[in-house]
Design goal:
Chains A, B: It comes from Actinophytocola oryzae. Chains A, B: GO terms for molecular function: DNA-binding transcription factor activity. Chains A, B: Pfam families: Rrf2. Chains A, B: This is BadM/Rrf2 family transcriptional regulator. 2 copies of one chain form a homodimer. By secondary structure, the first copy, chain A, is mainly α. The first copy, chain A, has a domain of 102 residues: Orthogonal Bundle (Arc Repressor Mutant, subunit A). The first copy, chain A, is 47% helix and 5% strand. Chain A is built from 7 helices and 2 strands, in the order H-H-H-E-E-H-H-H-H. A two-stranded antiparallel ribbon of chain A has the order 1-2. In chain A, a hairpin with a 5-residue loop joins strand 1 and strand 2. In chain A, helix 1 packs across helix 3 and helix 2 packs across helix 3. Chain A starts with 5 loop residues before the first helix and ends in a 5-residue tail after the last helix. The interface between A and B is large, with 56 and 55 residues.
Chain lengths: 157, 157
């Protein structure tokens, strides 16, 4: 069970955008340089975040990405699921209904109890990430971090 | 984020062994036929469960697999992690320390707050599966299921 490496990228990019002044943006090229990441692949992930409504993309010479909502309204779950989808990692192929042990149809009207239990666990994972916003993350960064982030992205006051 | 299809296999095999009479066993070939699964690949998974101490393997003409502990002491987490490992699906490659935005070393003595948040979610997933045992699963099966399972595996009284 693995999330793609780009999960770390988009979480850090989102946390970076959350540190900019209101209205500030950062381009895919800037963010790629900021974290030393492959720009074309990162750009695809940032576009997925935009399609999911987590980022806004602006065009023009000073265009780039910014959060579509205040940091306190952007959960880590929304970021992770924008690039990895919301599907449970457990796939139920209904093997209870196949082979010599196939359960009778009347016992299979409800989802399999094992699939339900795995779904409960996935729901617990989702609730955990739904309970943390980018504002919570920023509150746990060192005090000097946001100023440094803005300065290095050329957005100091 | 995907678990292997064999996760469903081992959960159902474990639940099946939990329905046998005390001391009863089922072989890899029996379980493969029971669920119409590829026997060699299933056998590898069952061996992983044995190495992890979830199953015992007995040899001889009536040999096979059985639970190493009472069903009430076998958690779904122990089964899933026996075949998929206990690693978090989120991989932190410390991109906070690379590129133009690299955080200073003194800010990186603690694990990254994003990695900690992702670990919290994985811990929530693990706690959920650690709170459900095979005995809980059996209690939620239709009343007739265990007798049918034993009969079809040639272990009726």
């Amino acid at each position: 069970m693995k999330l793609p490496v780009s999960t770390e990228w988009v979480l850090h990019c989102a946390a970076t955008l959350a540190q900019l002044e209101p209205g500030g943006t950062a381009s895919a090229a800037q963010l790629a340089e900021y974290f030393d990441l492959p720009a074309p692949y990162l750009a695809k992930q940032l576009q997925a975040l935009t399609r999911a409504g987590v980022f806004n993309a602006t065009t023009g010479p000073r265009g780039g990405f910014r959060l579509a909502r205040p940091a306190a309204e952007v959960t880590l779950l929304s970021i992770v699921e924008a690039v990895d989808g919301a599907a449970s990692p457990y796939e139920c192929r209904e093997i209870r209904q196949q082979g010599r042990g196939a359960a009778p149809p009347e016992d299979c009207r409800e989802p399999c109890v094992l699939a339900r239990t795995m779904k409960d666990a996935h729901d617990a994972w989702r609730r955990s990430l739904d309970g943390v916003t980018l504002a919570d993350i920023l509150a746990r960064l060192p005090e000097a971090a946001p100023g440094r982030t803005r300065a290095r992205l050329g957005q100091g006051r």
